[in-house]
Amino acid sequence: MPALIPNQFVINSHPYTESLIRWYSAAKRDLPWRQTRDPYIVWVSEIILQQTRVEQGLPYFHRFIAAFPTLHHLANAREDRVLSVWQGLGYYSRARNMQAAAKQVVTDFGGIFPKNYADILRLKGVGPYTAAAIASICFDEPRPVVDGNVFRAASRLFGIRADIMKVGSRNAFVQALELVIDPKQPGTFNQAMMELGSAICQPTPKCIECPVQAFCFAFEKQETANLPVKGKKLKVKERHIHYLVLSDGARVLMHKRETKDIWRGLYDFPTIESAEVESLWREKSVHISNTYIHLLSHQKLHVTFYRVVVNGADLKEFARTYRAKSYSIKQILTLPKPILVANYIADVFVSDRHVEDLIK
Ligand code: SF4
Predict the structure, then answer these.
(1) Span from the CA of 215 to the centroid of ligand 1 (angstroms)
(2) Where are the beta strands (DSSP E) in 228-319?
(3) Cβ–ligand 1 contact at 154 (below 6 Å)
(4) pLDDT tens-digit profile of 217-240?
(5) Which of 156, 189, 272, 303 has its CA 20 to 30 A from that of 208?
(6) Angstrom distance (rounded) from CA 325 to CA 46
(7) CB 257 within 8 A of CB 264
(8) Element (H or E) spanning 326, and its range?
(9) Nearest alpha carbon, ligand 1 atom 2
(10) Does the CB atom of residue 224 touch ligand 1 within 6 A?
């Protein structure tokens, strides 16, 4: 047993666990993925909630399940369709991985979602967090889930000083939680821990309202401000992206990104990526947008759009140069795109009267 675990956390005696679950049963929000033990539904919800908060994730969850109600629908869908439905959530590799994992279930597991942690972990894009969530919630396997909220709450509750920014620290948290997880209802325990971190043990903790205050190391020792220990963040990479929006008035050039990149499989405009040029074309005939700043977890994007209308012959030439294809606006609207490209198209083209006629 790790030395940092206070004495009251003794195996087979879980006053802490009882208090936590009692509070969660009364306080929990009524969410669609909490009304089922279907591993596909729980999996989709967990992946969506890794990148957005519950309120923002709900419409995406409903949209995804409406489009792909079962794992087989997802496995058999066209990738473009999956990315379109995912559009707006970002981290498109997660959507691609989900579809790859759905296909893997069909080929490697006879179409039945695997029922234990080790097998779930074999699915593409599924890490220890997601595997533990599905195994505990759907199959009662006592595997602690450790997400950002749980790191914070557990470090304070148990006085764990391992740096939560280091991958190797996770074990200390898993070992501590294994001592208190309820073996009869591990899924409920895990969801209660996540809810505690998200609703009560926030960065500025609401200790007065906390259902497990009596068991909390940091509260007793007045250490809530010192925990969790969080080392330096990874350096944010700055990227300068110049999009060439080449059009003959009716059709626009776009291409599918095939390079290994956050946007692989999505469609965007011919691109020049360089920090050297602040602004590419200054001719009057080129409409230059503002530079948009788009923040990702480890990247800061500076994105500028250059809109140029050329004649049909030049458009064909540009298509060859940039290995792009020309699409009508109506077609473009259905292609999966990075969200800032989708927003630009909505702003510039869809509000344009001429183009509105074209897309009817
Ligand atoms: Fe977090 Fe405060 Fe509760 Fe401890 S008492 S778990 S610091 S909210």
Answers:
(1) 9
(2) 237-247, 251-256, 267-268, 271-273, 287-288, 292-295, 299-309
(3) no
(4) 999 999 999 999 998 776 788 888
(5) 189
(6) 36
(7) yes
(8) strand 325-328
(9) 207
(10) yes
Helices and strands per DSSP (H, E), number in the chain: 16, 8
Amino acid at 250: A
Does the beta carbon of 153 lie inside 6 Å of ligand 1?
yes
Question: What's the CA gap between 338 and 267, in Å, rounded?
Answer: 7
Q: What is the pLDDT of residue 250?
A: 87
Query: Tokens 């969410």 sit at which residue?
Result: 31
Tokens of 308: 């140029």
- Which residues are catalytically annotated? 46
0.85 surpassed by pTM: no
DSSP per position, 27-75: H----GGGS---HHHHHHHHHHHTTS-HHHHHHHHHHHHHH--SHHHHH
pLDDT digits (tens, 9 = 90+) for 145-170: 999 999 999 999 999 999 998 888 89
| C-beta contacts of 305-308 below 8 A and 24+ residues apart | 305/243, 305/245, 305/269, 305/344, 305/348, 306/242, 306/243, 306/244, 306/245, 306/280, 306/281, 307/245, 307/247, 307/348, 308/244, 308/245, 308/246, 308/247, 308/281
